[in-house]
Amino acid sequence: MVELSQAPFVRLQKAPLTFGDERGRIEVLYEAGDVVLKRSRSVKGVFRGLHRQTAPSLQNKIIRIISGRIYDFVTDPDEPDGVIWYREITPETGWVHIASNLAHGFYALEEVEFEYFCDGRYDEANEESYFVADILRDSLSLKDMLLSAKDRSGTPLHRPVRHFEDT
Ligand SMILES: Cc1cn([C@H]2C[C@H](O)[C@@H](COP(=O)(O)OP(=O)(O)O[C@H]3O[C@@H](C)C(=O)[C@@H](O)[C@H]3O)O2)c(=O)[nH]c1=O
């Protein structure tokens, strides 16, 4: 029998770190230096965001939906005449890149499993949170928005909401 000094395959089904609240849960599946793979589950109506990390903890995100549907939102808070862009993302959309200068968030149109790879470690001390829920509720007729206490007390950001047409 061959002696193994380490397992040749390690399944990441059991997350080493899990955070749960009334919105659902977050699992940190893998973390090594500045590279993090996470998955979150949200019940229908949850809104997470808008979040952005600032220097020295900039964070590019590569996101996808495993199951369910979301409206995804981004905006550059530094643009004086900026807009909040949104688009629907489903499992068929595939992976989507969110640049580090953008504040990002999503609304769960139904129960969703959201997976994201972060190029840049989590740093709560350098995280900005922007409150846009009222604008989104009015612009897109969203109902039953469930936010964390942190997101409810984010910096209010007032700007137009525009649909992004994929080409
Ligand atoms: C995201 C994250 C959270 N946490 C902890 C902090 C807190 O106790 C708990 C919940 O954190 P949050 O409320 O910030 O989780 P959440 O609202 O899901 O935050 C996420 O929102 C979406 C829109 C993004 O773009 C992500 O980058 C991330 O900011 O999990 C970590 O330890 N590491 C992490 O990477």
TrEMBL record:
Site annotation (Participates in a stacking interaction with the thymidine ring of dTDP-4-oxo-6-deoxyglucose): which residues? Y122
Where, by residue number, is the active site? H51, Y116
Molecular function as annotated in GO? dTDP-4-dehydrorhamnose 3,5-epimerase activity
The GO cellular component terms are: cytosol
**UniProt-listed InterPro entries:** RmlC-like (IPR000888), RmlC-like_jellyroll (IPR014710), RmlC_Cupin_sf (IPR011051)
Stated role? Catalyzes the epimerization of the C3' and C5'positions of dTDP-6-deoxy-D-xylo-4-hexulose, forming dTDP-6-deoxy-L-lyxo-4-hexulose.
Protein name per its UniProtKB record: dTDP-4-dehydrorhamnose 3,5-epimerase
Q: State the organism of origin.
A: Meridianimarinicoccus aquatilis
